[in-house]
Amino acid sequence: MGKTLFEKIWEKHVVKTIDGGPSILYIDKHFIHEVTSPQAFNGLNKRGIKVLRPHQVVATADHNVPTLNQHLPIKEELSRLQVEALKNNCAEHGIELYGLGHPYQGIVHVIGPELGITQPGMTIVCGDSHTSTHGAFGNIAFGIGTSEVEMVLATQCLMQTKPKLMRINIEGKLNKGVVSKDIVLYILSRITASGATGYAVEFAGSAIRSLTMEARMTICNMSIEMGARCGMIAPDETTFIYIKGRKFAPTGEEWDKRLAYWKTLYSDNDAAFDKEITIRAEDIEPMITYGTNPGMGVGVTGHVPSLSEIDEKEKPSFEKSLAYMGLQPGANIKGRKVDYVFIGSCTNSRIEDLRMVASFVKGKHKASNVEVWVVPGSKQVEKQAIEEGIDKVFSEAGFILRQPGCSACLGMNEDKIPAGKYCISTSNRNFEGRQGPNARTFLASPLTAALAAITGEVGDIREYYKETELVTN
After folding, report:
1. With CB atoms counted within 10 Å of each terminal CB, which end of the chain scores lower, N or C?
2. Is residue 69 packed enough to be buried (19+ CB in 10 Å), middle (13-18) or exposed (0-12)?
3. 74 is in which domain, residue-wise?
4. How far apart are alpha carbons 145 and 125 in whole angstroms?
5. Cα(301)–Cα(298) distance, rounded to whole angstroms?
């Protein structure tokens, strides 16, 4: 019997398996940030323990940092204390820190890949659920809690139970205007926000293989929204070309050695999965959410389900969600007015995302009733956007290009959507209060968000192909 991609990596990293219990898994790379690490370091200090392998830890400030005037002291007290704690803890334990002002600072799941730190065949953890992003490179990557952060800092290992295995195949050619965010929102609408609970999910198929690395990262990023332990895609030539030449990528003989190993990382033809799903790429249209979990989504030309379409036991939560969103059962999504547009987060803040948005908004101007925030995922993305003139395209369109950080993805920093306002967002979660107390969130792709920024309402990007050539991924 052949092995899956997950099994090949898992077995290589198991230090010991406890009879009838979990396995002790060796961790290759540990990313940390300012929110979930202070308590972990306090735990180490109380026990008089040092970080075992600081060179395998990478730190950055992202969740609670301001995205304007980063050269000034942080105004919000808790955020300032967290960032200061990260700086002090990294200095004390000899950990590399990409803090505010550093040319490599940015969202943890953006900087890892762009710096060449994220590589195939690894085990990667971080105190952040969207660590699954890194699985796009063919590795096992997952989020952990604060006590587990402490465990990995102390031992470079973690106790884990092996998950079940699922493969989701997307076969065929995507329609115009359909991008990676639409793929993952479509999957979520099909299997629900709990449909992959207990599984490690491998995404495969011809449509997945045709995607760029940044598009693949978007899909793996949101695998956690299905309840999956992690998401992954087998590495291929697209992966290897992306990694080669990056700051911390291997070179020379070491590159050849690693590449030979990376080419063995795929699921064998006779590998067995506990569950397998196949979806036709042609069936996917531009998607948008209407509710308060990422699985509550429809095509932009669709409608909010009517009560007759909802299972009886699901009706109470469905009605509660619609009440929060201010929507009615059966209502159309297209034409719905929006107040804010947020383009950013670890899901869609990479240079390809910004290029995609710029290709549509060039020569246009935002609707007068909409405020638009574009937040690059890292200082490198920001620098590249400026070098390519994307910042000027945004400025002329009335968009605000801010500085790197998690920003309005979550209501932890200064970038919050006001209560009752509608925001079309390229982020990953639309929970109640996620973008601020009583804020209302529609999740969508960068293209759908860009269209809403220009028109002031939810629309179908496919209707605009005749007037412009769009850059998509």
Report:
1. N
2. exposed
3. 11-161
4. 10
5. 8
What residues have CB less than 8 Å from 77, skipping those under 6 apart? none
159, 25 Cβ separation under 8 angstroms? yes
Is the domain of 446 the same as that of 304?
Answer: yes
Same structural domain, 454 and 318: yes
Q: Which of 161, 183, 200 is the last residue of a domain?
A: 161
**Which pair of structure tokens corresponds to residue 79?**
């955020």
Q: Which of 126, 161, 196 is a domain's end point? A: 161
Q: In what order do the strands lie in the sheet with 275-280?
A: 230-232, 199-204, 164-171, 275-280
**107: closest CA among 390, 343, 435, 376?**
376
Gap between the Cα atoms of 147 and 180, Å rounded: 33
Is this structure's pTM higher than 0.70? yes
Number of independent structural domains in the chain: 2
Closest CA to 391 of 354, 416, 438: 354
Q: Where are the beta strands (DSSP E) in 281-414?
A: 287-289, 297-299, 340-343, 371-374, 400-401
Domain-located, residue 390: yes
> 185: closest CA among 444, 441, 427, 430?
444
- The CB-side HSE value for 210 (13 A sphere, CA atoms) comes to 17
Instruction: Report yes or no: 337 and 440 within 8 Å, Cβ to Cβ.
Output: no
Three-state SS for 77?
helix
Q: Is residue 357 part of a domain?
A: yes
pLDDT tens-digit readout, 162-200: 999 999 999 999 999 999 999 999 999 999 999 999 999
Spatial separation of the C-alpha atoms in residues 68 and 100, rounded to whole Å: 12
Q: Which two tokens stand for residue 391?
A: 């910042």
Whether residue 428 lies inside any domain: the answer is yes
Residue 273 corresponds to which tokens in the numbers above? 């999965």
First CA to last CA distance, the chain: 36
Q: What is the arithmetic mean of pLDDT over 33-38?
A: 96
Residues whose CB is less than 8 angstroms from the CB of residue 320 and which lie 6 or more positions away in sequence, other chains included: none
Co-location of 312 and 449 in the same domain? yes
Indicate which CATH number applies to the domain containing 450: 3.30.499.10
Dist. CA 279–CA 140, nearest whole Å: 24
Q: Judge whether 215 and 471 are in contact, CB under 8 Å.
A: no
77 forms bridges with which residues in the sheet? none
The answer as to whether 131 is a domain residue is yes
What number of other Cβ atoms are within 10 A of residue 63's Cβ? 23
